[in-house]
Amino acid sequence: MNAVHGNNRFGDLLRTQRIRRGMTQTQLADLSTISVRAIRDLELGRTGRPRYDTTQLIAEGLGLIGRDRTDFDAAAGHAAAADAFELIRDSESARPPASLGAIVGREAETEALADILTSAGRRLVTIIGLSGVGKSRLALEVAETVYRSHGIPVLWAAPPGTETSYRIAPAQDQLSHLIRDALDGLFDPDGDAAGRLSTLIGDRRMVLVLDGYDESPGHADQVVSLLQKSHELRILRTTRTSGGIPGEQTSPLAPLTVPESGDGHSPTGLAKIASVQMLLSHIRMVRPEFSLTTANSEAIAELCWRLDGVPAALEMAASWLLVCEPQDLLAQVRANPFEVIGQPGHDGGPQPGLGVSLSEAIGSLSAPETTLMEHLTSAGTGMSVAEIVEVSGIPVPTCWALVRRLLMHGVLRQEGSGTMRFRTLNLIQFLHERRRRFTAPYHALCGGSLSEGIERYAVATSFV
User: pTM of the full predicted structure?
Assistant: First the structure.
């Protein structure tokens, strides 16, 4: 098998083109000045990547022109010419996947990220956030904007075998097969997919979306290698945590906006809030006649608030309204939200456990981060940095650093339109309290006060 081009695509294509023209290997050898043995080895995939001058002599011997010539060069790994790029741009592989659902409440994020990728000079942008917060859907919208509004080709890759809410078009031609193979093997430690991909796209302006590749050994090296080899390439990643790749710009994605806690919500006012809009769109999939009324508006508002505006949670909760009313669903969410959103209320089969991914987010926190999160949770309301500093006595820069880290982990949300205030997500609070029942509190394990624990963190990270 060809070690560089899996499934011997070049050898298969060479044989196909030779037979199509009614040539024997000997006749092609005479026309191309390449030996019969070399042609036979190439067709059988016994060699690695063929030399450029060899492929050009064979192409001339075959009389290849136009698309046939470009596909032939691409299969050999020599497709950086302008005509090859034009074909890549026009192929189905250079378009974002088809989204299977609408996007709600992400206009600002879409505009900002599309602007960064097209005009701000940033080459590596990463959307980070909790599972289910809508990273992939936002990346789809950004990719569509880049492709439709700016005419920039978009390549899309996701870990093979991953369940997604979109559909990647199957490869229909030789060039698309080559691109798809390179993308699918991009992080294979035993291959050179990054080299093949960079050869295909050359130094042309293009955006590559890497959706759902959480950090693993060698991941950063492949990303950096791609950027070094393709100087006009831009990469947009989605991941749950940032790996700190040099030059990376991270964009934390928060859940959708939610109604304020408490009563007094009108149907008209609620209809303008992003999380309510999303919940209603999913409810109407199972109950087309459903509408906001004064009778159900408070239950809808509290459902969105308790589920933190997390799109995946809203979707799973809405599916149950085929068999119950919002007030009944709310009672279950108050008792244990994960009995509602931990499994689908439809026939779509098992879904990734949202509770598991949120628990992993809690488990990834450092001791000082956990302590500060507990402090915010016990406050029962949003707090400003100044208020946190006042009650804890920790330095402002240290407080900034800890709050920023908690936001990056996705366990806090900003609330209010005036002074920045931060509160722990309701779902995180529920899981954390359940964990506390089975584990000793941080203070009992480590000793010391909140301020002492955070000061140890500050010293270790040189903030004080």
Answer: 0.75
